[in-house]
Write a structure and sequence with these properties.
about 750 residues, about 20% helix, 12 helices, 39 strands, six-stranded antiparallel sheet
Length: about 750
Amino acid sequence: MHQELNISGMWQCMPDPDNIIETSINNYVVYKASEQPWHDIIVPAHWQQAGFADHQGVMWYRRLFTVPARQDDISYYLHFGGVDYFAEVWLNGHYLGAHEGDFDAFSFRVTDAIHFGRENDLIVKVTAALDANPERKAIAKGGLYHWDCLPVRQQGLADCPEVPSAANEQYPNPLVNPGGIWQDVVLQMRPIVHLTDVRVTPYLADDYKSARVYVDVRWNNDSRQEADYALTVRIVPHNFVGDTAAVTSEGLFVPPGVGNRMMRLVMPNPMLWWSRGLGEPNLYRAIVELTCGTTVIETKEITFGIRDIRIEADWGVYVNGKRLFIKGNNYLSNQFLSLMDEMKYERDVQMMLDAHMNMTRLFAHAEKEEFYRLCDEKGLLIFQDLPFQWGYRSDGEFINRAADISRRFVERLTHHPSIALWCCHSESRMHDYNKLDAVLMETVQKADPTRPVHKNSVLIDQGELPPFFATWDHFAAYVPEHLSVNWVGWYWGKIEDAEQYNPLFVTEYGTQSLPDVASLRRFLAPDELWPPDMNAWRKRGFQNVICEKRTGELPDSLEELVEQTQNYQVAFYKAHTEALRRRKYNQVNGILQFHFVNTWPAIDWAIIDYYRQPKKAYHAIQKAFAPLLLSFTGNVERVDDTVQVTMEAWVVNDEYRGYEGLEIAYRLLDMDGAVLEERIVLAPLIEEDSTRCFDRAVLTLPASGEVYRLEGVLRDRDGCVMAHNDCVLHTHGKAEEMETAADVNAGL
């Protein structure tokens, strides 16, 4: 069993914004470290959260620590839980190596470099610089670095971002690139022969009645001697009561160096992992023991679930053969992930579940391990993006680096049953789509052949996307017609156009609104707050020109503006969510709202602000995502001197249980509240996992108005209200008159 010496805590650091310290041939920062002007800094933390808020570029870190006397038959490893973004490491003057990527742990064997029984000098160079060309980036940090929900430089734009194209040379540039040693650093003391990794891949067979579980065990032999060992793998229940599900043992010949052994276990009648709403998220633990004779040398465990996830050509999602309508969000917890912990994740996940969500899209990044563990335990599916957002360098050197990052990204996360699919790139550009994305697709499919892999987050078609676009004209014609983002009522079109939108799957839809006044006062100065300092507001992400176009001119007070923008966001989500749910499985198979929570103190599309205060739209989504939804729709059309009002009453049931003997009671009112029509309609059978229109009526009324309101309840035989809802009816425009994504060159 290995031991650890945690060397996190108070370190020293030295800012090097222009990366000039190492240019000296003598590299004094390493070899004369005690003569340098060091400052105190806490580890783990991003340096922006540890006293260096405005620093970008290179930061040198130093830690002095003492190691006890050397133990026999022990290898020593320096283990970093996470460094953002590029790390180079020296120990006592020995250069150990480098690592790229902010999301995964890495280690160096340091047995020969340690000074036992005395002081050791550890130097780490961390690079996290602002990229000179955001549309040709050379760093793979995705949404944690370049995203319009983060601090941006607007370069004089009237809006942020320019709508809707990032091809504009004035597109916002990032202001902050998180950097630093953001997870623990430990010195690990491990047996000479030890386990390095365990990867579990389950496959279901026999109509889900049996499973084959492949356990790939990886090991190091740091000695110069070969030896005979044994491996034992036991699979036991993790979060449910049961006996050991499977066990196997094999002899293991271990030559010097690294190696692996693939072991297969057969499990009859496994307890399956189910997503939210379909069943229990049953989890197993694979316990791997390395033994020599009767002595257990080392034990390693990994938690996993046994399930099958399929996404059909029409984007129908199936978990263990059961179809599931996706209701979820886009999520990035905090630009500085070092600030997140298990308690904060539990709060966020519970708010998702309370809003009846069954999927979260991790927007172009990876969260901490605690988040994935919670999703596994709660049955919350993950639409997992790789860390690529917008444009990147298109040369082979970067593409090779990106492929290596992607392989490690997938390998780190693949055992989590909550991950439903991989998405290679968020909103890639044409040059990325043709080169980078093709390599990412191949890399991910090789690393994890068990899951669906999607190429580009905002493009969805029946079946596979095109392998490439030979010309810009081809790209420009294809993209607007195949967007999976629904900004109808924000970047183009009107809220009422929701009735005309019929996508396969929606990866983003939403509008902006202001946080509550109390939250605004926490991050805007009084002279910025009111009247609005639009430069300060736009830096926080606010699209004031679009907002004014959608919600109206600025009112007389901040309180009124908060109310105005939040009410518009509520109206958007109610109209779009209900319209899309009424078309459940009638082409529409899932919807992910954009986005769940502010990643910094911002004014943008989130439905929960940075301080975790829900906006009105959170509660609107919660109601619109209810498993049993009563929904009304209709149209108002003027015909000569009369108004023809069409009204429909729908019930959407996402539960895997039916309802019998219910009825819908609803009424039509004018905008003064006068009742114009009352109806009671039987709903004798509401089938499981279904959507159905139970009543449609057309009324001809005097032309006294053009806006009407429906309200009603769904109740059982005893009069108990199962659901209630209302709807404002407007005059719907014709489909051919709608402003579309193509009209505004969206996505180009």
